[in-house]
Prior knowledge:
14-stranded mixed β-sheet; 24 helices; Nitrilase/N-carbamoyl-D-aminoacid amidohydrolase; globular
Amino acid sequence: MGRAVTVATCALNQWALDFEGNLERIFRSIDIAKSKGARYRLGPELEICGYGCSDHFYESDTLLHSFEVLEKLLESPATQDIICDVGMPVLHRNVRYNCRVIFLNKKILLIRPKISLANAGNYRELRWFTPWSKARHVEEYFLPRIIQEVTGQETVPFGDAVLATKDTCLGAEICEELWAPNSPHIEMGLDGVEIFTNSSGSHHVLRKAHARVDLVNSATAKNGGIYILANQKGCDGDRLYYDGCAMISMNGETVAQGSQFSLDDVEVLVATLDLEDVRSYRAEISSRNLAASKVNPYPRVKVNFALSCPDDLAVPTCMPIQWRHHSPEEEISLGPACWLWDYLRRSKQAGFLLPLSGGIDSSATACIVYSMCRQVCLAVKNGNADVLADARRIANDETYIPEDPRELCKRVLTTCYMASENSSQETCNRAKLLAEQIGSYHINLNIDAAVKTVVGIFSVVTGRTPRFSVYGGSSRESLALQNVQARIRMVLAYLFAQLTLWARGMPGGLLVLGTANVDESLRGYLTKYDCSSADINPIGGISKTDLKSFIQYCIENFQLTALRSIMSAPPTAELEPLVDGQVAQTDEADMGMTYAELSIYGKLRKIGKAGPYSMFCKLINIWKEIFTPREVASKVKHFFRMYSVNRHKMTTLTPSYHAENYSPDDNRFDLRPFLYNTSWSWQFRCIDKQVN
């Protein structure tokens, strides 16, 4: 009868401008899809060139090489007898569009440009592309000569159209269009489109996956149909981790789920579904059918091809499944770990160096590297040849097989405790014990000689010797002495990252890992150019609250008992002198606010778009049971003073894994001035008026 269609979607670990690698991964996904009987294959957004090309999209080279890759795909026998839907930038009448190119048997069927561009948060698509604004309109696109020679076509349809095969009708959405209030799938579904496709470049944010899944399922719950979503995965070359979650849904229920975090470069989902289930589902929705009778029809591109087989009564179809979501602690364990692995293997370095202080932040970073090692060993055990080859190259051992995460951690992670006269024996012991339990190569050193030398130079030049406040010095002196310690640690971290392996008779260098969390960055509670200055930071987008929960997760799931004492100890920078051998300095006392308060400030400032006055208005209700309006006003003012005084530090913030929507990342996510009038006179006067 021709009612069971077999379709494939995929999650690919593409890399910006890696045309050769991207092509190889596309071919692999097509081979897998065909081997499983699929007649249609969907890939991620801009998969040919990679989603994260940024200003390289302006370059004609990017367009040229994308068409050269398309030429290879079109002429290959591997793409025969399957509809292939790939993503690439296309220049049409001197305007750049983010497009899907859909082809079959060396013929391009349709070039479909993106209608709604993502332009919020980390996305800047309007900088490089123009949205297609001509609804249900198709124009002729004149193909480049290299493509004409393969297809024999001079022009192909370009615009907002759908494909009509022998047995069904398909319509395409691209990423943001699913999230738009007027998603194309609504009108397409009313016009008889039965299969909706969505190629995405959607990145990971903690607690976000359910929103994407709910949107896909709701797209067909009201209107019926089959929805296929492809997404990029991995580190594309910047701060984002694209988290896969390829999926196939029918009539509001998930029938196939891809992994959110995985070291597999190519993951393909295939499902066989009964078109009659869509038709019978729609038959009962009278409101939908009434709206369908009045819909403005889409242009249809006729395709002499079927997604089903004539004799398919015995073909089994897929049944609904329950989507399993990761907990936030699992997301922290897996997402940054996969991002680190991509960065390590693609940067061709030999491992990481981590200044391990014995506190929560650096310990959480160490645990993420340990989780990465666990993921690598698991992938090798499951037969992932790519991961094995990368592990052997990183370890500089062609026969190496990573089986024990602790043994792998010894090879790829060097931890370093940098003691000073202000460090306690407790933090030294905690760092050493954690290093032993995760297996890292651990170094203990003392920075006092370097600190005294630097301060001595200042004293020789000026004739003055600064003192800590506990010894009668001013706050300026004390802060300067703390900063000297912090900055010397950064210098030593890079020295040891470059030469530790050399000293051990091993090749290569190490990437320095930063350990400032999102809350400290927001408040500016860090020394500019200290150990927060590193190559990359896996926890820079994660709150202190979530990191504590992650530490507890590691205690329970990784059996890292050393973390118990780290969890119970108050966070401290250990930059001021000890009192009777004990730490007297704590983070929250230094900051004048708790980490829990900082998270609230951060979410209101960025997600709630609140300035000082609006934040005060919201907090007097949120905190009405615990603080008076005058206390709330004092807290809000203190936060905004500290935030604005320290905002300049965000301009040099180490590239961090993006995990929170209140990240203060100044690179492209949180665009603000870095020279403020820190008195906030007008705003604070408005607050005072309300307090009075």
